[in-house]
Structure formats: structure tokens, C-alpha cells
Design brief:
2 copies of one chain form a homodimer. Chain A has 213 residues and is mainly α. The first copy, chain A, contains 9 helices and no strands. Chain A is elongated, with a radius of gyration of 20 Å. Chain B binds a DNA duplex (30 and 30 nucleotides) through α1, α2 and α3.
DNA sequence: GTATTTAGACCGACTGGTCAGTTCAAATAC
DNA sequence: GTATTTGAACTGACCAGTCGGTCTAAATAC
């Protein structure tokens, strides 16, 4: 089935996947993301996914072993995008600026991939799912980038030394998710700057207060 | 809790419900809450609900018109408890103390009814569900209590005048949900006081900073 | 007091429909 | 000429909702 060997020609990707196939997978990711955010995993049928992606049902199963494998790969894909954004955002910045950059990056990501953010929040604390383990690992991955920034701030003295780094990092991650979704779902007309500065105000004031012994 | 109504002269309550039936409904609420939090609405079967509640499937349909009606009434029931807690918590307190009381009340509620909190968060931003409208209204109800407290603080000069009351209220509501679930799911051994003070630190510092022009 | 009635409450086997997953021959890109 | 996509048919499991039947206890009759 996965017939191509790596390094055959330039047309094919490292996994032996053609650009054409990658495009199909991309379409399937987008469609799945949107549908699952709207309806949840179980209420989303493979027929719907195929239809929204503009692809035949057989194609879904040509590209993914099963519905839940499709979802698991989607999780990897989405969180991969997010951590890439995070890493790029903080590159070379001092802690305080990096913090603001992280918030900006997360809000921007959520605005761009709102469906994904929505499904992340829905599944985040769910237990007893087959992909639960995957999601937990991926979450760690994203939060680790934030935690490293917080840690750097603590080390440099910009943040309070007694700060619970892990708790702060995951709180920041979660707060952005909640506030951003609230904004997009209930107050879409509100400008992003307002939301951004609101979140930053919380983070900044906290850091400032904590930093002054 | 949804106790029996006072003033039962005959063997039946005012709307024709017996104590026996109320007990059954209560069991069904608890079972549904737990199962939906674990698995989500669609993956929870009526058979499972009946089994966990220790009743027959027919009983579910005797007490509720349908699965989604059961869920909708569960939402009302749960949010009712929450808003009651909120209202009781703030009664007679000045704004700053009321704020702390609200956080305490929300955390305590989530600890007690973790399953409900979990399902609230999962369904909060979901669109295209038949109970979507109900959930949105109930959410407003709970947040309004918070918003009134924030407003009182603004009026009394304890909080900054330019504070976005609605946004702050829903942010506070969401932040408690996220932080509390993170705590219960990922760090259950962490003491509640630590979580409580972390949330309060954010809120308090923010108010303090904003209150000093 | 005991028997009978009554209706609310509950039971659980059954039905009808839905959907994930499979398969494949034919068509179309590359 | 191979990789990929198509579309449709099929199946087997699963599940919401139904319905005739049973149970329970209060109320009334005897």
C-alpha cells in the first residue's frame, strides 16, 4: 500500500506521499476540524467529512486507516502548528516580551483555527477516549514551550521566584483558549486588540505584583 | 437541591410528582452528569444511564421525553445549583469580599460537581446543538451574578471605572472552570487552597492595579 | 382490619433506522 | 503504468425510542 520509497524523486514528500495526496489530506483535516468543533466527534460521520472536503468516502479510507486515526493525526497536525507558532513567537525575546508574544500567538492561532481550538477545549479534560493519551502528550508539548518561557522569566528575576511554573503555564494556555472562544462565539464584533490587552493586563499585572517583594 | 415542594396535601406534589419519582429523577441526573462528562453526550447511551442509575430504560423515558430533553433539564438543574451558590455567596458582602467569595463558591461547586463542570466546558462553545440556546441562556444567568458584583465594585470605586464588566465576568467564570478542571484532572493531589489563592491572586492584583490610576 | 380498586411508576424485550468500516471495479491524474 | 480517487454496494453492530406488561402503595369499600 505505502509503495513509494523515500528519496525517489523531488515530486514526493519524505514519507513517500505525493503533493496531491498531501493536498487531499489537508482538505480532510480542515473539514474534520470544522465538523468536529461544530458537532463533536461522534456526531460527525465519515460521509459528512468526505462531503465537506469535496472527496469520496473511499478516499478518506485510502488516506486514513479509520475515523479515529484520522482524528488522532488531526490532533498531531494541529498541535504541531500551534507549537511551531509558539516557538517562532518567543525566539530571541527576553521573558517579558516573550510572554506577550505567546499570548498574541495563541490568540492569532485560535482566530485562524477556531474550530481546532474549540475541539481542543472540548476534549481536553475528557477521560476514557482512545486518543486521550495522545491529546495529553500534545498538550504537554504546547504548554512546555510556555513553561520554558515562564521559567526563563523566573531565572532572570522578571517573575516571582515562588511562581508555580507548570500551573502558571497551563493556566495561561487555558485562559487564552477560554477568553478567545468567548470572544469569537459570543462577541465576534469585539476587536482582537481589546481581547489581547485584557489578557495581557491580567498576566502583566500579576507578574508585576509578584515581581515586587 | 431540587427538593420536594412544600405544601403537599395529598400523596402527590403540586405538579403531580411523587417523592418516589423525584428520587428517580435525581438518580438519573447524577448518572447522566457523570457519564456525559466522561464520554460526551453522543457516546453516552440511554442504556448506560439507566444502568448506572439502577433503573430500567423505560423509566428514563417515563421521566423524560427524550435523551436530549433529559440533558436539557440536567443543564437547568445544574446551573440552578450554581447560581444559587453564587447568590448565597455574595449576599451582603462588599464588592472585594464578594469577589473572593464568588471564586471560592465556583471552585467548591466544581469540586463537588466536577462532572457537571466538565460537561459545561465541553458544550459551552459548541454550536448547532438543540440545547445550545438553553445553555447560552443559563450561562448568562450565572455570569450575570458575577457581572452584578463586578458592577457594584466599579460603582463603589473598588474596581477601575474603565473595566469591561461583561468581559471580566465571563473571563472570571471561565478562568475558574479551566484552572479547577486542570487541577482536578491533572494535579488532584494539589490542595484546593493553593488553587484558590492562585486565582484570587490574579483577580486581586488586577483589581488593585486597575484601581490605581 | 382486610379486600379491592386505581393510577402512578417502573420494567425490559423488541424494532427500525443509522453509521463505521470494507470492498472493488472503473475512472482519472501524474 | 502506477498512484490516487471515485462512488456505490454491503454488512454488522449499535442505539434511541416504543409498548404491553408488572409492581407498589394510597385510597376506598366492605
Amino acid at each position: 500500500m505505502m509503495g513509494l520509497r523515500a528519496g525517489m524523486t523531488r515530486r514526493h514528500g519524505v514519507d513517500g506521499r505525493s503533493a496531491r495526496r498531501d493536498a487531499t489530506r489537508q482538505k480532510l483535516f480542515e473539514a474534520t476540524m470544522a465538523l468536529i468543533a461544530e458537532q463533536g466527534f461522534s456526531d460527525t460521520t465519515v460521509d459528512q467529512i468526505a462531503e465537506r472536503a469535496g472527496v469520496a468516502k473511499g478516499t478518506v479510507y485510502y488516506n486514513f486507516a479509520s475515523k479515529s486515526v484520522l482524528f488522532e493525526e488531526l490532533l498531531r497536525y494541529g498541535v504541531g502548528l500551534l507549537t511551531a507558532d509558539f516557538t517562532a513567537a518567543v525566539a530571541g525575546l527576553p521573558p517579558v516580551d516573550a510572554m506577550a508574544a505567546l499570548v498574541r500567538a495563541e490568540l492569532a492561532f485560535i482566530q485562524r483555527y477556531r474550530s481546532f481550538a474549540q475541539l481542543l477545549l472540548s476534549e481536553m479534560w475528557r477521560t476514557q477516549r482512545d486518543w486521550q493519551q495522545t491529546l495529553r502528550l500534545l498538550r504537554e508539548e504546547a504548554i512546555t514551550v510556555i513553561a520554558e518561557t515562564v521559567q526563563a522569566g523566573v531565572d532572570s528575576g522578571d517573575f516571582a521566584a515562588d511562581l508555580d511554573v507548570r500551573l502558571s503555564a497551563s493556566a495561561l494556555f487555558g485562559v487564552c483558549l477560554v477568553v478567545a472562544l468567548d470572544w469569537l462565539v459570543f462577541n465576534p464584533e469585539q476587536p482582537i486588540e481589546q481581547v489581547e490587552s485584557a489578557v495581557l493586563a491580567i498576566v502583566r499585572s500579576r507578574a508585576a505584583v509578584n515581581a515586587q517583594p
